[in-house]
Write a structure and sequence with these properties.
By secondary structure, this protein is an alpha+beta fold. It has two domains: about 130 residues, no CATH class; about 60 residues, OB fold (Dihydrolipoamide Acetyltransferase, E2P), CATH 2.40.50. It is about 50% helix and about 15% strand. The protein is built from seven helices and five strands. The protein has a five-stranded mixed barrel with strand order 1-2-3-5-4. A hairpin with a 2-residue loop joins strand 4 and strand 5. The longest helix has 25 residues. The protein starts with 6 loop residues before the first helix and ends in a 5-residue tail after the last strand. About 25% of the residues are buried.
């Protein structure tokens, strides 16, 4: 009996493949997780597709993974991550022989992606994510006293958006431009905003109600 004729095998292949690939992005495993993840995903597509189609579906899958990484590292608004997830789901679903196998493959991908975050509790997080999140506090000892005072003085001040905050963008206060973030709100360009909180150099703003 061909093992790949069993629908649940697709669940294991896409689950472990996605688990290790996203795990490689999150934690520093020196490429071990990456190799394992690529192996499982290549086996999955090779088992269910013709050789000429395997490359295409692999490209769609890994482009999706790349979009998720770009969103997490640079954009942080969820748009590219959503497109990436759809791309990965589409690739594994289309590769399946039937609906049941495709459903198992999709569920495996979703659970594998979610489960990869458990690696953060066991293994060392990659440094690039710590740098992105700016986990080092801006302290007086580090020489940021004057900068902190300037940014803290912005709390309660009003400004205007220079571009769309979705949720990150640029605002202008007293003829000076600052990078700011809204509280999960989409704020359009040239909209009056109020600075409600400052954490280091992170400026949190909200739209000023028009009926104020």
């Amino acid at each position: 009996m061909d093992i790949f004729s069993l629908s649940w095998v697709a669940f294991l292949l896409t689950g472990f493949g996605t688990l290790f690939l996203i795990g490689e992005v999150l934690v520093n495993m020196r490429g071990i997780f990456g190799i394992l993840g690529i192996g499982f995903i290549v086996i999955y597509f090779s088992a269910y597709l013709e050789p000429g189609t395997v490359i295409l579906m692999l490209i769609i899958y890994f482009v999706g993974l790349l979009l998720i990484i770009i969103d997490g590292k640079f954009v942080n608004d969820g748009t590219l991550a959503t497109l990436g997830l759809v791309s990965m789901l589409t690739a594994v679903a289309l590769a399946a022989d039937d609906f049941t196998t495709g459903l198992y493959a999709v569920i495996g991908l979703l659970l594998g992606g979610a489960g990869s975050f458990l690696f953060l509790k066991v293994f060392k997080r990659r440094n690039m994510w710590g740098k992105l999140a700016l986990t080092d506090r801006l302290t007086t000892e580090a020489g940021y006293n004057s900068m902190n005072k300037e940014y803290q003085s912005l709390v309660g001040q009003e400004g205007i958006t220079l571009n769309v905050l979705r949720p990150v963008g640029t605002i202008r206060i007293n003829n000076k431009d600052y990078s700011a973030v809204s509280n999960a709100q989409w704020i359009t360009e040239n909209t009056p905003v109020l600075v409600v909180q400052v954490d280091g150099t992170k400026i949190l703003v909200k739209e000023i109600s028009k009926d104020k």
